[in-house]
Design goal:
14 strands, alpha/beta, 402 residues, globular, 4-stranded parallel beta sheet
Length: 402
Amino acid sequence: MKKILSLFFLFIVMIGLSACSSNNKDESKTESTDAMKHSSMDERENSEGFSDVFSTKNVTRLNAENIIDAAIKVSKTIWPSTHMENRPGAVILAPADNWQISLAAADLIHHPNNGPVLFYENNEIPEATLKELARLGPVGTKEGTEVIVMGKAGQNVLDQLKDYQVEQIQEEDPAAFARDVDKKYAEASGELPNSLIIVSSDKEAKLYSLIAANWIAHMPEPILYVTKDGIPEATKEALSLRNSQARIYVLGPETVISKEVESSLKEFGTVTRIDGKNPVDASIAFAKFKDEKTGFGWGLTEPGHGLDFVSTEDADFAVAGAPFAHLGKHAPLIWLEKGELSDETHAFLGQLQPTFTDDPTVGPYNHAFIIGSGKAVSMNTQGMIDQMLEITSADGGGHGGH
């Protein structure tokens, strides 16, 4: 009898242990499943920690945290330097801490340099920039210049460039520097452009002024500087060379360039203002603007174009990305307000969205570049831009059998 009771007790214990083991396995399985779910959620939530170029079908992103890095990645994208034909003529080296000098320098991206803007800071060329300069192997302009240094760079910067043929435009005053760039372009091209852009050098006007970077990298028109309430003598000197035949385009509202300055500019030629109620709106207005009489302006009002997006929080990236208007898609700059799409931008992209009737393979296609990290411009924003640039059926039926 005792033996039977002992066996029964042992059987009960074994069942209990088996149940505990089963429960532990179930709990472990549940914990493992929960961990996988959380891991998957973390991956989705942290999807913005991506690589150097994280692109979607209609958007190329250059994932950059600072202006030095942004300029290098733009340079690598546009000038592969695998053959003589895709090496730059000369490289523009601009001060990272002076947007006025860097912006004016963008006029030389196309001609005579055909090259990127790279940056120096604190009177030193960063090691990464020197490596990019060596990779590019600039072939030189017709005068032999391989690097053109912008602004009052010190001897240390020039010493770092001892292996290159260097030219320097040394002016520190924005208006005088822009005047000298204007002269440099005219000397190199043999022609002084009659059309030009007037922007403000005031800090408060920065976002309105930087919109000009892509156009002057794309076409010969330079920028010249005013302030909100005045025209510097250097700017008057440059304007006077046009013999009252200047075609002047004022970029920005009256809050950054006054009505009085606009009136004073009429002494030098015709004046047209391109403005907007805020910098984002102004960037869209400039992208859509076209002067049919002179040919000035992007005139983006239909599908089939490139666009360059930069967050207003990373405004200095605008000059680094200006070469996207020179080669490839020839893209104007559109601001993203703190990295987000505004209602105005939604409407603008809707206007540009391409459609097809029978065959989506014949286009037209849009493409965008985003310069900035996932913290500056989220993947949600990129995804929305990508979707709004996508070609779609004219009848609203999607791609159907295509």
